[in-house]
Design goal:
Length: about 160
Amino acid sequence: MEARLNYFASPTAGKALKHFMSAGRTLKESTLPAATQELVALRVSQINGCAGCLDMHSKEAAAAGETPVRLSLVAAWREATVFTDAERAALALAEEGTRVADAGTGVGDEVWANAAKHYDEEQLTSLVVLVSFLNAVNRLNIISRQPAGDYQVGQFH
């Protein structure tokens, strides 16, 4: 499979992606737990079908010590016993934030209140920005059919 666009060869994309990369680094440095960030990134990318992001985030999470069982169960987190209540709240918010067109109402009050029980305002802000950021990156990759499988841990850091 070959990508439709080479973002790194485009002056416009290069300028824009510099800011995307900076936003990604800022999120990594936030107080939102790193494990939660990777789980959310995986779930958003699963919903959107972004192979490139699934490749990247599954490898980054594994390199950071995430277990194969938890990585395998992200898609079925509601039925899995390996996630904390806080992680479940983040995954629920990520799903509703990603499926805004499907739900028609965005993130529901119950999902928001549950997330707010587990995360402070700064962490909630980071979570919302992360979900939005991942949805944007997923779309960049999907529209241009970026291939997956060759990502190396730390490649974009």
